Amino acid sequence: MAPKKKRTISQATILIVVEGYVEKAFVSVLRSYYSKPGCKVNINNRCGGSSDSVVNFACAEESGNEIVAAVFDADVPLSAEVSARSRRCGIIPVISTPSIEGTLLDILEVERDNNTKNCKRLFKGIIGEGKTTYKGAHKTLFPKSLIDRKRSDVKALNDLISAIERKK
């Protein structure tokens, strides 16, 4: 008897490269809310790298992925060279101003300034000491109903969800 051929089903893949652990926790929650069947969403954490290192890694990994997004903070802007490279590679930039904590505070409608340290302090006070990097804490603080409501108001949130939903 001839051996049976294995069927392989090609899955679309989306790569989201994030700057740090807080971003990874939040993007993991969004992935659980918005990823579609037949599509694999991979999250790669650059563990605190600069915006340039996040985008450079995304460019290096873009082949074989349908969509590649880079999530990074605006507090250290991209160099002109890396910005041009990201456009050539087709990377979707998801820029948090001034940091991911600032974007998360915007979703929660918490008044904030544009100082990264202040945003981190405020967010830590809301989510709880030591919980900023836990997916469960983010899922509790950001239910899907809130995310759906704030999507049109927060550009970085909309850009990220659009990438997960495979909309360029």
Compose a concise summary of this entry.
The chain is α/β, with parallel strands linked by helices and about 170 residues long.
General description of the model:
The protein has 168 residues and is of the alpha/beta class. The protein has one domain: 3-Layer(aba) Sandwich (Rossmann fold), CATH 3.40.50. It contains eight helices and four strands; from the N terminus they run E-H-E-H-E-H-E-H-H-H-H-H. Strands 2-1-3-4 form a four-stranded parallel β-sheet, sandwiched between helices. Helix 1 crosses helix 6 (135-141), helix 2 runs parallel beside helix 3 and helix 4 (100-107) packs across helix 5 (116-127). The longest helix is centred in the N-terminal third of the chain and has 14 residues, at 21-34. It starts with 11 loop residues before the first strand and ends with a helix.
List the helices and strands and how they pair.
Elements (H helix, E strand, L loop, with lengths): L11 E7 L2 H14 L4 E7 L5 H10 L6 E7 L6 H10 L2 E5 L3 H8 L8 H12 L7 H7 L2 H7 L4 H10 L4
Parallel strand pairs: 1-2, 1-3, 3-4
Helix pairs in contact: 1-6, 2-3, 4-5
